[in-house]
Design a protein that fits this description.
The complex is a heterodimer of chains A (about 450) and B (about 290). Chain A is of the alpha/beta class and about 450 residues long. Chain A is built from 22 helices and twelve strands. Classes of the chains: A alpha/beta (about 450), B mainly alpha (about 290). Chains A and B meet through α1, α5, α21 and α22 of A and α1 of B.
C-alpha cells in the first residue's frame, strides 16, 4: 500500500505539473506596457535608450491587401531614413480581422505603439477613458505639418482641446469609372459629372439600347459599388447635403424620408434594368471583373482601383486606355473627413512614443503625401506639390483631378459612412435581392433598415 | 479508514481533469449564462439588466421567430432525411458489396474538408453563371434557366439545406460501428429460424443500432442549432431573413458590440441543445441496455 501511495503521489505530481505548465506566465501582459521588441521589458531603461527602437505593428495593409503596394515600401523608406534610431516591423493581419485584433490587444493591455483607425467604438471608448496620446502638443511644435492638415479633419479629431488621432491631409473623392469606347458606341458625349441623374438615366438606357450592360452592381458583401452610386444619387436630393455632409460624425438611424426612399427606388430600377444577371449575390470581385472584362460600361469605385486597369492578369491588354473617370452626376464626389486615422496609445516608453511620432510625421511629410497621391490618387488642398507631380500621375488619376477641379459641386459622405455597422455590413446588402425582385417596395426597404438600425442604437 | 483514503486518491486523480473541464467549459458557459442578463459592450464593465436582452431578442421584430422556424425545419430534415441517408449508407456498406471500401473512402472525403471550405465550394457550385448545377440544368434544354440559388427567395433555403443534407458521415460511422458490433451468433440464429433479409434488418439490426441512430440525431440536430459557416459564408442569412438562424443573431450581437444580447442568444442555443438531448434520450431510451 505504501508503494502504491508513493507511485500515486508521483503520478499526481506529474499530472499537476503538466496542467500547471500553461500558467508559467512570462508574458508580463499585466504591466500594461504596449508591445515593443526594441528590448526586453525587463531591461533597465537606461540601456534601452541607447538601442534602436523597434516597433512591431500589426497592420492590414500587408500581404495581398491592395494598400500594401504603397504602404510596405513606405515603411521601408522610413526604416532606411531612421536606420540607426527606429525600425517599424509590420505583422500581417487580414483586413477583416484587424479591428478585432486591436481590440483584443487592448483588452490584454498589449496595444502596439501605432494603430491606424481600428473600430470606431474602440477609439471612442479610449477617447472617453483618455487612453490615447494627445497629438496636439506635437502638432503645435510642427507648424508646417499642422498647416498641411484638412480643417474639417482636425475638427473631427479634436475633443476637449486634445487631438487624439492624426487628422488627414489628403481627400480622395470617390467617383466612377466608365468605358470610353462603349460610351462612344452609345453616342454619349456629355461628361457624366455635368449630367443630372435624369440625363444619367438616359445614358444608361442608350447603353442598354446598344446591347451594352450599363452598370457593374453587386448585392453581396457590403454591396459596395451599388451603395456608392445610391449615395451619389441621394446627395442630389433636397435635404441630403445635411445628412451626408463630409464632416458629419454622428450616425443616421432613420431612412424613411423621401430622399432615402427615392434613392432605394433608383437602386431597385438599376438592379432590375441596368445590371448583369449575376449582380444578385455578386461580391466586389465579380462586380469589378464585369467591368475589367468589358461586360459592363460603368463601375463606381475609388481611385485605388486604377492599378487594376493596366494589370493584365485582371484586364485585357490596353484596357486602361479605354477607361475614363469622373465624379458622379451633379458633380458629386464621395469622401469623408469624419474618420479616425493613426493614433498612439498612452503609457508607452518615451522613446517608443518618439518613434511613433516620427513615423506619423514621416508619412505626412509633403514628399510622402505626394508619393501617396501619385500611387493612389487624391488631393491635398494645403500641400504644395512639386512641379513634376502632375506629370508623374497616372493619366486616369490626372483626369480625376481635372474632374474635381472643374466639376466638383459637393463632397458628400457615402451612405456606409453615416449608417451604423449593422446596416452597412449586413442589412442593406441582405435585403437588396428582395428589393430587386419586387418582393419589397422601396418604402418597406427603408422601414426595414430603419428598424434594424435602431435595434442596436446606443 | 481505507475507503476514505481511496476516495481522497480518486478525487486527487480526477482533480486535473475537473480543473481543465471547469476552466475550458464550465467557466465559459457560466459566463455566457450570467452575461446574458447584462448589458455589456466588451469595452466597459457589464451591468445587470435583467431580462432585457431576452425580451429584445425575442420581441424586437420577427427575426427570432423566423430564425427559430428555420432551425426547426432544418432540425426536422436533419433528424429524418439526413440521419436516414447516413443510416442507409451504413447498412449498404455493412453488406460489403463489391467496391464497398472505395465507396466508404469517397464518402469520408468531406470529413477532411473544413466547413468554411465546404461552404465556398457550394457557393461556386450554386453560382448562376459558373456553377455546375445551373450549367447542367441549362445543358439539358432549359437554356433560360437562371437562379441565384443563395440570393433568390425561396431558393436560398433549399440551397443551404443541400450544403449539409447528404453530408452524413458521422451518422454512417456511428451506425456502421454498431452494426459491426452485433454478434454473428444473433444473425446465425435468425437464419436458422428462417428469417428473411428484410426481417433481419427490421427485427435485429435496426433495433440493435437504435442508440447509434439516436446519437446521430442528437449530433445532427445540435449541428443545425449551432450551424454557422454554411450560412454565414454563403447567403449570410438572406435574402432578407430567409436563411437566418440564432447563431447569426449571436454574431450580429458581437458585431454590434452587444455581448449581453449575443450571450442571451447563445443561452437559447444551449437550452435548445439540452432539450434535444433530453427528448432523444427519452424517445430512444438511451440509458437502457441494448442487449
Amino acid at each position: 500500500m505504501k508503494r502504491f501511495k508513493i507511485v500515486s503521489m508521483l503520478c499526481l505530481t506529474m499530472a499537476l505539473g503538466l496542467t500547471g505548465c500553461g500558467s508559467n506566465n512570462d508574458g508580463g501582459s499585466a504591466s500594461g506596457t504596449p508591445s515593443s521588441s526594441g528590448e526586453s521589458t525587463d531591461k533597465p531603461v537606461e540601456t534601452a535608450v541607447q538601442e534602436k527602437v523597434v516597433l512591431k505593428i500589426p497592420h492590414y495593409k500587408s500581404g495581398q491587401n491592395v494598400g500594401a503596394k504603397f504602404f510596405l515600401p513606405q515603411v521601408e523608406r522610413f526604416n532606411t531614413k531612421y536606420a540607426d534610431k527606429y525600425e517599424i516591423q509590420i505583422e500581417e493581419v487580414p483586413n477583416d480581422d484587424y479591428n478585432d485584433k486591436i481590440k483584443l490587444l487592448w483588452q490584454q493591455k498589449e496595444l502596439p505603439a501605432l494603430i491606424e483607425k481600428g473600430a470606431n467604438e474602440l477609439v471612442e471608448t479610449l477617447i472617453e477613458k483618455d487612453e490615447i496620446y494627445d497629438l496636439k502638443p506635437f502638432l503645435d511644435s510642427k507648424p508646417e505639418l499642422k498647416a498641411s492638415l484638412i480643417e474639417d479633419s482636425v475638427a473631427f479629431n479634436t475633443r476637449d482641446g486634445k487631438i487624439y488621432t492624426m487628422p488627414s491631409s489628403v481627400v480622395r473623392p470617390i467617383g466612377l469609372f466608365y468605358n470610353k469606347e462603349m460610351f462612344a458606341d452609345a453616342g454619349i458625349t456629355k461628361p457624366i459629372a455635368q449630367m443630372n441623374f435624369e440625363e444619367f438615366d438616359q445614358a444608361l438606357q442608350a447603353l442598354k439600347d446598344k446591347g451594352i450592360t450599363p452598370l457593374s452592381l453587386m448585392t453581396g458583401e457590403n454591396a459596395w459599388t451599388t451603395m456608392l452610386l445610391a449615395s451619389a444619387f441621394m446627395a442630389n436630393e433636397p435635404g441630403a447635403e445635411e445628412v451626408l455632409k463630409s464632416n458629419r460624425a454622428d450616425k443616421e438611424f432613420d431612412y424613411t424620408s423621401q430622399m432615402w426612399v427615392k434613392a432605394f427606388g433608383e437602386v431597385q430600377k438599376w438592379l432590375k434594368e441596368y445590371t448583369t444577371d449575376n449582380a444578385l449575390g455578386a461580391a466586389y470581385a465579380d462586380s469589378a471583373n464585369n467591368f475589367l472584362n468589358e461586360k459592363t460600361a460603368i463601375i463606381a469605385n475609388g481611385t485605388w482601383m486604377v492599378g487594376d486597369f493596366s494589370d493584365t492578369t485582371k484586364a485585357p491588354e490596353g484596357f486602361d486606355k479605354k477607361v475614363g473617370v469622373s465624379l458622379y452626376p451633379g458633380g458629386i464626389g464621395l469622401a469623408t473627413t469624419a474618420e479616425y486615422s493613426w493614433w498612439i496609445p498612452k503609457g508607452l516608453k518615451q522613446e517608443e512614443t518618439e518613434a511613433a511620432l516620427a513615423f506619423i510625421e514621416f508619412i505626412r511629410s509633403p514628399e510622402e503625401v505626394e508619393a501617396y497621391m501619385v500611387a493612389e490618387g487624391g488631393q491635398a488642398p494645403n500641400i504644395q506639390t512639386s512641379a513634376e507631380f502632375t506629370s508623374k500621375l497616372n493619366p486616369i488619376l490626372a483626369e480625376m483631378n481635372r474632374s474635381v477641379s472643374s466639376d466638383l459641386k459637393m463632397i458628400a459622405q457615402s451612405m456606409a459612412d453615416v449608417w451604423p455597422d449593422q446596416i452597412s455590413s449586413k442589412e442593406f446588402s441582405g435585403y437588396l435581392p428582395l428589393l430587386a425582385q419586387d418582393k419589397m417596395t422601396p418604402e418597406q426597404f427603408a422601414e426595414h433598415l430603419t428598424k434594424k438600425a435602431q435595434q442596436f442604437k446606443k | 479508514m481505507k475507503i476514505k483514503w481511496l476516495n481522497v486518491w480518486i478525487a486527487a486523480f480526477l482533480a486535473p481533469t475537473v480543473l481543465v473541464l471547469a476552466l475550458f467549459y464550465i467557466v465559459p458557459i457560466g459566463t455566457v449564462l450570467v452575461t446574458g442578463f447584462m448589458e455589456w459592450d466588451g469595452l466597459r464593465a457589464p451591468e445587470f439588466n435583467g431580462l432585457n436582452n431576452y425580451i429584445h431578442l425575442i420581441t424586437y421584430d420577427n427575426t427570432f421567430f423566423i430564425a427559430l422556424r428555420n432551425i426547426l425545419l432544418w432540425s426536422l430534415m436533419a433528424a429524418t432525411l439526413h440521419v436516414g441517408f447516413g443510416t442507409l449508407v451504413a447498412f449498404v456498406l455493412y453488406k460489403k458489396h463489391i467496391g464497398w471500401r472505395f465507396v466508404r473512402g469517397v464518402f469520408m472525403v468531406p470529413m477532411v474538408i473544413s466547413a468554411a471550405a465546404w461552404a465556398i465550394i457550394y457557393k461556386l457550385f450554386f453560382n448562376d453563371e459558373i456553377g455546375i448545377l445551373n450549367h447542367m440544368i441549362r445543358s439539358i434544354g432549359f437554356s433560360d434557366f437562371h437562379v441565384n440559388w443563395f440570393f433568390d427567395s425561396p431558393a436560398s433555403f433549399f440551397a443551404i439545406t443541400l450544403t449539409w443534407l447528404f453530408y452524413a458521415v458521422y451518422v454512417t460511422l456511428i451506425v456502421y460501428n454498431d452494426l459491426m458490433a452485433i454478434p454473428k451468433e444473433v444473425h446465425e440464429a435468425a437464419l436458422l429460424d428462417g428469417a428473411s433479409e428484410w426481417g433481419m434488418i427490421r427485427h435485429i439490426n435496426l433495433p440493435l443500432v437504435k442508440k447509434a441512430i439516436g446519437t446521430g440525431i442528437i449530433l445532427s440536430v445540435t449541428a443545425r442549432i449551432a450551424g454557422f459557416e454554411e450560412v454565414a459564408l454563403t447567403s449570410r442569412g438572406g435574402p432578407g431573413n430567409d436563411t437566418y438562424n440564432i447563431t447569426l443573431m449571436l454574431y450580429d450581437g458581437i458585431v454590434n458590440y452587444n455581448y449581453g444580447y449575443a450571450n442571451a442568444a447563445a443561452t437559447i442555443m444551449i437550452l435548445l441543445g439540452i432539450l434535444v438531448l433530453l427528448l432523444i434520450n427519452r424517445v430512444f431510451k438511451m440509458n437502457e441496455s441494448t442487449y
